[in-house]
């Protein structure tokens, strides 16, 4: 009985160690807030619907004026 | 994106501030940065989506006013910041910040340079949002802009109406405040 308890205890210890290892593997560590935000930004997906809506909205607008620098440098 | 505006019929370089393909390139290059700023500044994906759409539409309409004094990204950020601030004001969602709050952060245990750990990537966004929402607007904006590697302290200073030195000084306090709030959010 005592031996079984010891095995169970060892098994639990191993399981705990394995869980800890898994947690350590999936843990992310960032040195600064900016680094964390940069990671977050890189993993943020821009909704495709914005591009679609933009296309529809832009189609209803009058054509934008030609900028001064294009008027100056280009025919 | 292969050009939401690029596919617009009848718009060519001679007529528009940018050629359609150039505006599409502008969107491709900067939409993530603008969407992310709006998302974390406003704290709501739907509002961020609407804001990003409005910012690029405004940019499209005002392209002729771009004089090249700043980079395209800085120009777009300026439109985005003004737009987000206007939205917040109209929602009466402005965050009030007092010196007492700052004292709490200054005396808190977390250090600005201590590592920030997180176990699950999926939790990350929620925790970041929670921490940013509790920050005063000035700190939130500063961190979001400085986190963009394309932005220099000079450009961040220009967008937030302060000198690069002031940006550096406030950034330290912003980092510390964020670290305290981020740790509390776990």
Of all chain pairs, the largest interface belongs to: A-B, 42 and 57 residues
According to CATH, the fold-level topology of the largest domain in chain B is Arc Repressor Mutant, subunit A
Q: Let me know the average pLDDT of chain A.
A: 71
Q: Number of DSSP helices of chain B?
A: 8
Percentage of residues in strands of chain B: under 5%
Query: How would the global form of chain B be characterised?
Result: globular
User: What structural category characterises the helix and strand content of chain A?
Assistant: mainly alpha
Helical region count of chain A?
A: 4
Which residue ranges of chain B are poorly predicted, with pLDDT under 50 across at least 5 consecutive positions?
Answer: 1-17
Strand content of chain A: under 5%
Mean pLDDT score of chain B: 82
**Low-confidence parts of chain A, pLDDT < 50 over ≥5 residues?**
1-7
Q: How far apart lie the N and C ends of chain B? A: 36 Å
Shape of chain A: elongated
The ordered string of helix (H) and strand (E) elements of chain A is: HEHHH
Gyration radius of chain A, to the nearest Å? 29 Å
In terms of quaternary structure, what is this? Answer: heterodimer
Number of domains of chain B: 2
Structural account:
The complex is a heterodimer of chains A (75) and B (186). Chain A is mainly alpha-helical and 75 residues long. Chain A has 4 helices and 1 strand, in the order αβααα. Chain A has helices at residues 2-26, 33-42, 48-59, 68-73, and one strand at residues 28-30. Residues 1-7 of chain A have low confidence and may be disordered. Chain B has 8 helices and 1 strand, in the order ααααβαααα. The longest helix of chain B has 23 residues, at 20-42. Chain B is globular, with a radius of gyration of 18 Å. Chain B starts with 19 loop residues before the first helix and ends with a helix. At the A-B interface, β1, α2, α3 and α4 of A face α1, α2, β1, α5 and α6 of B.
């Amino acid at each position: 009985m005592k031996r079984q308890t010891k095995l169970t205890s060892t098994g639990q210890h191993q399981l705990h160690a394995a869980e800890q290892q898994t947690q350590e593997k999936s843990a992310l560590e960032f040195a600064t807030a900016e680094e964390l935000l940069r990671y977050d930004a890189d993993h943020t997906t821009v909704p495709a619907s914005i591009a679609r809506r933009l296309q529809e909205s832009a189609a209803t607008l009058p054509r934008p004026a030609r900028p001064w620098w294009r008027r100056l440098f280009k025919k | 994106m292969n050009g939401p505006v690029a596919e617009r019929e009848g718009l060519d370089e001679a007529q528009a501030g940018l050629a359609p393909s150039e505006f599409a390139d502008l969107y491709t290059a900067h939409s993530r940065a603008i969407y992310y700023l709006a998302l974390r500044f406003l704290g709501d994906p739907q509002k961020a989506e609407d804001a990003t759409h409005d910012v690029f539409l405004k940019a499209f309409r005002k392209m002729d006013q771009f004089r090249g004094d700043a980079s395209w990204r800085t120009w777009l950020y300026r439109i985005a910041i003004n737009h987000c601030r206007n939205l917040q004001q109209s929602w009466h969602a402005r965050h009030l910040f007092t010196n007492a709050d700052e004292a709490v952060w200054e005396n808190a245990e977390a250090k600005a340079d201590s590592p920030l750990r997180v176990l699950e990537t999926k939790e990350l966004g929620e925790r970041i949002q929670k921490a940013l929402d509790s920050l005063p607007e000035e700190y939130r904006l500063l961190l979001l802009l400085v986190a963009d590697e394309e932005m220099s302290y000079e450009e961040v200073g220009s967008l937030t109406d302060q000198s690069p030195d002031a940006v550096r000084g406030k950034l330290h306090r912003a980092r510390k405040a964020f670290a305290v709030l981020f740790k509390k959010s776990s």
